[in-house]
Amino acid sequence: MPLGTPLRFFSGTATYAMERILDMWVGVELQPRSQEVSQGSRGAFNQAMALACQVGARITIMHSTWHEGRTVPIGDAGKAALDAMVTEAIGAGLRTRLEVTDQRPWLALLRAALNESADLILVGKRDRLQAPSGRRLGSVATKLVRKCPAPVWVVKPGHDLEHKLILVATDLTGVGDQALRWSASLARWRGAALHIVHAWRHDSEAQERFQGDDPEAWQEELSNLREETRVAVLERCGNLDLPAPPTVHLSRKSPARAIKETVGHLVPDLLVLGSLSRAGRAGIFVGETAERLMGRLGCSLLVLKPDGFECPVAAD
C-alpha cells in the first residue's frame, strides 16, 4: 500500500463505527533519573507515527509527572526529549501536540478517551530492565486494558514495526467480529499473514452419551463439530476483503490457554482480541488470570472493548 493511502477501519458495532482513526494518544514515560524516554514508550510512539502516516490522524503525546505517589518535575533533559518527539512527528507531516499532566498516567489516558474522544490509545510494554520477573504488562497498560473504552495498543519494546504475522482471537460475538475487522485492516496495511484462534467447546452430555455407547461415533461427531466450527469462523471473514483466506487455529482448551499456546507456536508480531467488560458483557475475558498471561506474552497487543462497554471512571 502506498504511503499516505487512507486505511479504513470498519467496526461491527456502533461504538466504534468509524471510517478511519482521527485522534491517537500516546503515553510517554520518562526515566526518573536519566529523563530519557523509555524503550517501551519509544516503541509506542514509533507505532503511532507509522499508523498516523497512513490514516492522517493527529497524535497527542501525553506525559504524566506522577510517579509512585508523587510528582516528579521534568528536567531539562526530559523537556528536550519530549520536544524532540514532537519535532520528529511534525517533521513527518503529522499534526502533533504535547500534553503534560500530574494525574496518574492511566487515568489521564482514560479520560482522554472519555473527554477528548481519542480513537486509539498507545502505550509501551515494559522492557526487560523494568520487568526482571517477566511480567511485561505494566500497571498503566493493565488498567487501560481493563477500563478504557477506546482501543488500547500495547507495543512491544524494540519492535521493528514489520508486522509479518497478526493473530486475532475471536469468540464469534460482536466484539470478536470487531477484532477480526481491525486485524484484517492491519494485515492488509502491513501485508501480513492473518491467523485466527478460537476456543470452542462441545456438548459434555453428548460426549458422555456417545462414549458410553460408541466411542468411534463420538470421534466422528467431534470431527464434524470441529469442521462446523472452522466453517463458522471463516464465514465471519467473508466480507473482510483479504487477498487469501486466514489460517484458523481451533482449540478445545480455555481461551487463555488457547491464546497462550497459539502465540507460543506462531510467535506473532501482534495479538488482537476483544475484552469482557466488568459488567459481564460478551467478549473474550480479560480478567486477572488472562492479564497475568498476556503480561508474559512477547508480542504487542491490541485490545478492543465490546459495544455498550461501561467505563468505571466518570468523565470530567
Salient structural properties:
alpha/beta, elongated, two-stranded antiparallel sheet, Rossmann fold, 316 residues, 10-stranded mixed beta sheet, single chain, 12 strands, 18% strand
Question: How many domains make up the coordinates?
Answer: 1
Structural class: alpha/beta
Strand content: 15-25%
Q: Mean of the pLDDT scores? A: 82
CATH topology category name: Rossmann fold
Overview of the structural elements:
The radius of gyration is 21 Å and the shape is elongated. It has nine helices and twelve strands. Helix 3 (105-115) packs parallel to helix 4 and helix 6 (204-213) runs antiparallel to helix 7. With 316 residues, the chain is an alpha/beta fold. The protein has a ten-stranded mixed β-sheet, with helices on both faces. The chain has a two-stranded antiparallel ribbon with strand order 3-4. It has helices spanning 39-55, 76-91, 105-115, 139-147, 174-190, 204-213, 215-235, 255-266, 288-294, and strands spanning 23-27, 58-64, 66-67, 70-71, 96-101, 120-124, 152-155, 165-169, 193-199, 247-251, 270-274, 300-304. 42% of the residues are buried. Residues 1-19 and 277-283 have low confidence and may be disordered.
